[in-house]
Structures are given as C-alpha cells and as structure tokens.
Write a structure and sequence with these properties.
The relative contact order is 0.15. The protein has two domains: about 190 residues, Rossmann fold; about 80 residues, Rossmann fold (3-Layer(aba) Sandwich), CATH 3.40.50.1100. Helix 8 packs across helix 9. By secondary structure, it is an alpha/beta fold. Helix content is about 40%, strand content about 20%.
Length: about 300
Amino acid sequence: MTMRIPGVTGADLELLLPSPLEPIDDDRLARHDVRLLLKRDDLIHPDLPGNKWRKLKYNLAAARQAGHRTLLTFGGAYSNHIRATAAAGRLFGFDTIGVIRGERHLPLNPVLDFAVRQGMRLAYLDRTTYRAKTDPGVIERLHHEHGDFYLLPEGGSNALAVRGCAEIPAEIGEPYDVICCPCGTGGTLAGIAAGTPPGTRAIGFAVLKGASFLVAEVARLQRQAYGHTVGDWHVDLDHHHGGYARRTPDLDRFAADFERRHGLRLDRVYVAKMMLGVFTLVADGRIPPGSTVVAVVTGVP
C-alpha cells in the first residue's frame, strides 16, 4: 500500500511501502519446482528507488539530528547513489556535494545533469586521490574546501544503511528459502542477511569483477552495525559479466527475453546480473528444487 513517511524536515514524503511482492511465472523455473517472487523496491519512489531509500533514510535522520545542513558523498560519473543523494537533498532540505571520480566533462551526462538540477554542487578528484578518499587527509582537505558536512560513503553503505536494508525481509509476508540481491558495495546484502529469518539464506550477486573483497566488506559492515556478523549469506562472484557496468551478449539476451516474457525491463548494471544468476543457480541445482526465492529489484534501468 501507499503510505506517508514523516520526512526529517517535518514534511511528508509519499513512498510505496511496503514495496510490492510480485510472483513470476516462468517455465524455466517451474520445471525445477522453484517459485520466484520479486520484491519491487524499484517502485518505492521515482527519485529514491530501491536500496537508495533504504540506505539513506537513517542517514538523513542522523544528519539532521547532528545539525548538519550539507551532505557530501562520492561516486562515479554514472553513480545512481549520486543521483539519489541529490534528490534526497532537494526533498529533505539539505545542500548536497557530489565528489566525482575523474575529470570534469561537458556537457554533463544525464546522471550528473539531473544531480545539478536538484541543486547538487559537483567537485572532482583525480583517480589516484579518489582511491584514497577515505584517508583522513583527503577528508580534511574536503572540509577545508567545502566546510561542515555529513559524510556519506561511496554507494551509501555504512552501519545506518545496513539497518535500513535489514528492514526488507520483514516486509515479505510469506515463507521463502532464499533471498537475493545485487552486490556493489555490500551494504544491501549485509542488511538483508541480518534481517532474514532463521532457516533462510541470502545471496548477493557481485556486479564487479574480482570482487572477493566484498566478503570481508559485508562482514565489516555487519560488525559496524551489530557488533558481530549475522545471518546465512554468500557472495556469488561468477555473474559480473565482465565487471561494473559491463555487459555480455548472454546478459543482453536474457534481459530482453525477461522483458518480453514478464513485461519488466531490468537494469543491466545490477538487477539483470542478479536475475540471470538466479536462473543459472536454479538450473544447476545450487538453488534446489522446491525452493521459494525472493529477488530484490534494487533499482531502475
């Protein structure tokens, strides 16, 4: 149902929560006796879809409570997190600064153009400095240049983001065996795994090549949020299709066929990789017959 959630400025923001749970009827799964449900977090809000709202909401409240008026965060030139932070700033009355990896290019691409139209100021870091963006010296330099701000990490993943994502499983009103999500920075998987009931497992499909570091990162985020690791979770490293924002003909064929069958266009960067991974794990038995699988649609194309 549609409900109104109190905004941190005192105004209300209309969000579609709980997000819908939609069954998918697909013969490729039915022949293995597997049931698939889509958790449509992409429908939460046009400008704050998917895990973006989940990650931001407790951070926005913390920023306001601490008296901050500005949010600063990091991202690449096509970062959905940059886009969502800019929108959140407009909706909740924060100034926003986006620190972008690499050099400035004009005209701005659609993501950065949207961010600027929301009121975000853009700054740029060369790639060497960007890799050191969490170093105290770099943060001190940013404070010197931009003044006081509330720092959101790249991708928005921190302890508060984990707690927001941990609320997803509680919205699923029927039993399931496996819950899946795309995995970029680890925050969504860390939260979902913490919120899953006993006897269920969580799988995060890494969208980056060589992302074995995500195992330690998910564990770190859980310890930061809860003091210890929690839940039965796993990072799948085999469905990145060449790396972040890269695509293969197999991925494109699968996504086009999925849209034809089910009327849902899948985001190729994150969601299509997860979905093809789910179908592959069902076909080879790693998701066993008789399972009910929930796949979290974390963003829009």
